[in-house]
Design a protein that fits this description.
The protein is mainly alpha-helical and 80 residues long. The protein contains three helices and no strands. α1 packs antiparallel against α2. The longest helix is centred in the C-terminal third of the chain and has 29 residues.
Length: 80
């Protein structure tokens, strides 16, 4: 098995184990907590989109923050 296939399989297996653990826990409690929902959603997003997705949205977020900082600085300079 190639390294990328091993990584995909291990990510899939980890998601599966986490889901089984969650199902056993939720059957005890009856409801999912916010933390459990976030963990499962993050695992599913990671499984379906991969690391490139996180890199792209991180870059977009950084660009937005940089733009807001520059707008704040120009507004501050205009008031003085």
């Amino acid at each position: 098995m190639e390294r990328t296939e091993q990584k995909k399989f291990s990510n899939f297996y980890l998601s599966y184990v986490l889901e089984v653990m969650w199902l056993s826990e939720s059957s005890k409690k009856g409801k999912m907590t916010v933390a459990e929902a976030g963990r499962l959603g993050g695992a599913k997003t990671s499984q379906t989109h991969g690391s490139e997705f996180y890199s792209e949205i991180g870059s977009k977020g950084g660009q937005k923050v940089r733009k807001l900082i520059m707008e704040g600085k120009s507004t501050s300079e205009n008031k003085q």
